[in-house]
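Technical annex B. To support the medicinal chemistry partners, we prepared a structural model of the target in complex with beta-L-arabinofuranose, based solely on the information shown next.
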Amino acid sequence: MKKKRYLVDHLFTADPSAHVFNGKIYIYPSHDIDAGIPENDLGDHFDMRDYHVFSMDSVDGPVTDHGVALDVKNVPWAGRQMWAPDAAYKNGKYYFYFPLKDKNDIFRIGVAVGENPEGPFIPLENPIKGSFSIDPAVLDDGDGNFYIYFGGLWGGQLQRYRNNKAIECGNEPKDDEPALCARVAKLTDNMTEFAEEPRDVIILDENGTPLKAGDHERRYFEGPWMHKYNGKYYFSYSTGNTHLLCYAIGDNPYGPFTYKGVILTPVVGWTTHHSIVEFNGKWYLFHHDSKPSGGKTWLRSIKVVELEYNNDGTIKTIDGLAE
Ligand code: FUB
């Protein structure tokens, strides 16, 4: 399968986090709607209100929509905007992680718990203590430890924090200063809290220097994902305003990670967001674009394409505009 495939056409969906549970692929996307809110740099036009979960037995087989897995109406601490989610399985339960603004318009990360991979998920009373910003992605490290990665610039509010504390000015660093980083924290045994203070996910250039804030072609913007390949940790992410999906490789879940290249060149639409999963011995990139909506950035459609590695473990770049 080298051609890209759109997965559903009855809903607009984005930010697909794919996992293999019970021998099937489950996809946890954002559910885009046309809320009639004018476009701006803070992403107010991404005013999503619920989540659907999809599953499929094979990447080219039928896709099942399992219906609404979580609705903003049922989240006790909710303000607005349900953005890119993820899910994890541990000890007979499924944990659904979602970014949502609280009643003060501050993004937090919520957890909801279910008995089945497709939900429904019951939200906890409060978001994760100490959480901020957007785009949670959870790594099951296979040794009983789970790590949550998160953070996103601009509308995702990451620029408002330093050392995990809100700051007065809330601006991005100057171009020649180190770039802001995604965050990573180990999850507690019960999967519902940070087990430690979140740490910076540092991305180094080829000389071992942390990427600079002005390096818009390579620095982290949003949409973190972590996967393992041949014992290495691959941290992948969107560069936001330069519209690339990039990756960096490290030796452990915390990094540092060394920048390696581009996974996906720009697609139709402003945002680009993905996940990477192995299924039946092949690797797949799940992502989205805005082609079916005629380029409306807030009405996106999820798709899948095979992802290939070179012999040295680097990833072959995929053309975002190719069919
Ligand atoms: O879907 C809303 C936001 O757009 C996500 O949280 C970002 O990663 C971007 O895809």
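Notes passed to the chemistry partners:
The radius of gyration is 18 Å.
The mean pLDDT is 97.
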